Amino acid sequence: MTFSIAFVAGVTPTKWTRIWGQRRPETPLQVFRTEMPEQIEVLRDERAAVSLVRLPIDETGLSVIALYNEIPVVVLPKGHDLDVAGATEPVAVGDLADEHLLQDPDDVPAWRDLASEIADGSRRALPPMRDMDEVMEQVAAGVGIVVVPHSIARLYGRKDVVSRPVAGVPDTQIALAWPTDATTDLVEEFIGIVRGRSSASSRTPTPAAPTPEADPAASAKNARPVKPERKPKKTDKAKAAAKAKRAEIAKAKPAVKKSHDAAPGRTRPTRNPKRRLR
């Protein structure tokens, strides 16, 4: 039995799939990339159990957990007026108002509301482009620009195009989606992985470890071994005999009466025999 994971272009699920391999080695993964038009279709036709998607999506019948945001960038032909060497500040979306967007204007509402070609009706039809590689070819040729998440610009980057962050365009969100009525234990396990839960905090209940009282084998295994009684040594017997001999000798000695006449170390003054009494 395998567990299928789909991910939209630009997402890198390597970290999560590696953790899965450590925790669930008995369940191999089937991982494949999708484009945005099919990122939730793979859930509805059951090609994938979960899908890493780029919002917004039609969430009907789906459970969705937002994971992180992506900043938007504009991709321009190299040498464009906005291709400023060393520039770090974002390009204002208003500075792109006179550009031709190689996308559906509804995909970038912030540009659509300011675009000159929309306002004056001069917008021309888009050239045939089958995929993002061909879109980037059109950008490199100077036909127009695109506004995409940073990960997409990096994935399809070329030496003849440049990208810069855009101010005024909302971030996009990457999320995990799956059919609500197909929330299996494996789905719960993957949710825990992408949320950063450790294996110890898994939602799957685990049986409690037996207590020492309930598990005699464990008690015997963990009990501290009893030290054997130490045998007396020959030297111990000799020392005991010598001690007893000294005690007998001490008892046999006569008691000596102590003299108090000239006890050394006395500090009381003595009478001087030569001193006359008056």
UniProtKB/TrEMBL annotation:
Positions with biased composition (Basic residues): 268-278
Basic and acidic residues composition-biased segments: 235-251
Pfam families given in the database record: LysR_substrate
Domain of life: Bacteria
GO MF: DNA binding; DNA-binding transcription factor activity
Transmembrane feature ranges: none
Keyword DNA-binding tagged: yes
Name the UniProt record assigns to this protein: LysR family transcriptional regulator
Provenance organism: Cryobacterium frigoriphilum
